[in-house]
Amino acid sequence: MLHLSYSGYAALRAHGEETYPHECCGVLLGNSVPDGNRVRQIVRAGNTRTDRAHDRYNIAPEELIRIQRQARTLGLDIVGFYHSHPDCPAQWSQTDFNEAHWVGCSYVITRVDRGQAAVTNSFLLTGTSEEDKKFLDEPVEIEVNEQHIEQEKGHA
Amino acid sequence: MKINIPTPLRAYTGGQQTVTVPGATVAEALQALTAAYADLRNHLYTPEGKLRSFVNLYLNDDDIRYLPQKESTPVEESDELTIIPSIAGGVAAICNLFCS
After folding, report:
1. Which portions of chain B are predicted below pLDDT 70?
2. Which of A26, B44, B46, B76 has the fewest CB atoms below 10 angstroms from its CB?
3. 3-state secondary structure of B100
4. Residue of A64, A87, A106, A122 best to disrupt the B interface, most CBs of B under 10 A
5. Cα(A136)–Cα(A85) distance, rounded to whole angstroms?
6. What local confidence, expressed as pLDDT, does residue A155 receive?
7. Would an 8 Å CB–CB cutoff place B68 in contact with chain A?
8. Is CATH 3.10.20.30 correct for B2-98?
């Protein structure tokens, strides 16, 4: 199970809309919990694949190290990553699988159709090595706090 | 020196985020690391003993691949080595299946 606040969920989907028709990417900071990962903070990252940003993403290791340091100061860990699939399903691709190496982390993918975020799914990378790794469908629990509900009522 | 361990590899260091190992060079520090935590070896190196292509090693803020002496670079006790697996992907393959 991936536990994600509504604001975090909205933020990563908005990122995909902003970068459309290119893929967005970012890092999920949080903690491991008994039933999965709990996200506390979403950190946007730059997509270094400017040569084909419409169908590839890559986070520079230097940026990842900076984000990891930031996480440590907050008492958090890297628990996952997110990216978008412009005009394509929110399912992991063979490229996603080949390039996935963070076992135990959640890989969140949002389909963005013509600039509008559609389906968002999460996949947990499991296994004990590169040879036996696999993605499992991971349920996502969106946590909506009372303050947010009040804000929504205010906008209604 | 200190070695920062990424989330997926902490299962092999007893949950430690950072481990301290002896060594006068990057290579010696890595050797000390895999000697102390033998299960890490398979995750860092191929069966042929080469560093796996997706494993990035940074000495402080420098990618060791671009240091003149690479893994033979001398290190001080105050240096930090960070192991950071790459993160990449993209829709390419699936799009050919579903979107064309």
Report:
1. 92-100
2. B76
3. coil
4. A64
5. 18
6. 52
7. no
8. yes
Alpha-carbon B89 to chain mean position: 19
Q: What is the CB neighbour count within 10 angstroms for residue B62?
A: 12
- The C-alpha atoms of residue A139 and residue B80 are separated, in whole angstroms, by 37
Predicted pLDDT of residue A145: 76
- d(Cα B43, Cα B55) in Å, to the nearest integer? 9
Largest CA distance in chain A: 52
Contacts of A81 in chain B (CB under 8 A): 87
The fold of the A2-155 domain, in CATH, is Cytidine Deaminase; domain 2 (3.40.140)
What is the ipTM metric for this complex?
Answer: 0.89
Q: Which residues of chain A have pLDDT under 50?
A: 156
Q: Distance between CA A27 and CA A45 in Å, rounded?
A: 7
Which of B3, B4, B5, B7 would you mutate first to test chain A, the one with the most A CBs within 10 A? B7
The pLDDT assigned to A154 comes to 56
Residue whose C-alpha is closest to residue A123's, from A135, A141, A132, A140: A135
Q: What is the pLDDT of residue B100?
A: 44
